[in-house]
């Protein structure tokens, strides 16, 4: 019984000692400020403080993230442009052509060009990584012409700079081209027997 009482007194003394240490901390200046290496108290940041991002003595909560995402500010030495998203589905925009047409680089980002009759679609100066599919929707030949200083590779053969490719007179013929180097375009795939149109 004496051992049990001794053990209970020891546990009580340790508990009192622990509580006493906490009381001493509160009496001698309170809970310390939190840091990266020490637990302690901290203050929550306001939305404005989260957006400016300069306070080192405040913490951000999930509720502040919306404010920061709405005004990201500079990243390093660069301020990001405002994003414009018009199609998040990954759909390829369709361009309908009813006359000879010169495409821009902005129109060669995966677009599909539907050509309604026997017209020429001229590619812009090559941009590496650009791509476009040109498709005829009538039973007439269509032409895809390279910029004067660019070449087209058709069936593994590099045509002369500025040469065009010509489709057969079949509805549904198409050619998909990619800007694969600084000197021109390559036909990645085609429907119908496209040929060098000179």
Description:
This protein has 198 residues and is of the alpha/beta class. The chain has helices at 2-27, 47-52, 62-70; strands spanning 43-44, 58-59, 94-97, 101-102, 109-115, 120-122, 131-136, 143-145, 151-154, 157-158, 164-166, 174-181, 184-191, 195-196. It has a seven-stranded mixed beta sheet with strand order 3-5-7-12-13-9-10, with no helix packed on it. A five-stranded mixed beta sheet has the order 4-6-8-11-14, with no helix packed on it. The protein has a two-stranded parallel ribbon with strand order 1-2. Helix 2 (47-52) links the parallel strand 1 and strand 2. It starts with a helix and ends with a strand.
**Can you give the helix content as a percent range?**
10-25%
Total number of domains? 2
In total, how many beta strands? 14
Helix/strand class: alpha/beta
Could you tell me the mean pLDDT?
82
> Radius of gyration, Cα only, in angstroms?
35 Å
- Summarize the helix and strand pattern as letters: HEHEHEEEEEEEEEEEE
Overall outline: elongated
Percent of residues in beta strands?
A: 25-35%
CATH architecture level-2 label of the largest domain: Sandwich
CATH topology (level 3) name of the largest domain? Jelly Rolls
Walk across the major sheet and give the strand order: 3-5-7-12-13-9-10
Low-pLDDT runs: 6-10
Distance between the amino and carboxyl termini: 110 Å
Oligomer: single chain
- CATH class division of the largest domain: Mainly Beta
Largest sheet entry: 7 strands, mixed
| Count of DSSP H/I helices | 3
């Amino acid at each position: 019984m004496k051992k049990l009482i001794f053990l209970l007194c020891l546990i009580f003394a340790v508990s009192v000692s622990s509580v006493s240490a906490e009381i001493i901390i509160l009496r001698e200046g309170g809970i310390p400020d939190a840091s990266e290496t020490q637990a302690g108290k901290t203050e929550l940041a306001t939305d404005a403080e989260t957006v400016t991002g300069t306070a080192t003595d405040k913490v951000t909560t999930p509720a502040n993230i919306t404010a920061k995402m709405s005004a990201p500010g500079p990243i390093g030495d660069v301020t990001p442009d405002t994003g414009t998203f018009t199609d998040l589905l990954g759909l390829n925009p369709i361009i309908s052509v009813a006359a000879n047409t010169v495409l821009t680089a902005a129109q060669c980002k995966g677009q599909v060009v539907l050509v309604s009759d026997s017209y020429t679609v001229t590619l812009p100066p090559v941009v590496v990584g650009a791509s476009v599919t040109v498709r005829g929707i009538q039973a007439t030949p269509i032409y895809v012409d390279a910029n004067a200083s660019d070449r087209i590779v058709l069936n593994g053969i590099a045509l002369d700079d500025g040469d065009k490719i010509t489709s057969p007179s079949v509805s549904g013929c198409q050619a998909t081209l990619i800007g694969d180097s600084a000197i021109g375009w390559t036909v990645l795939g085609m429907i119908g027997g496209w040929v060098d149109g000179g």
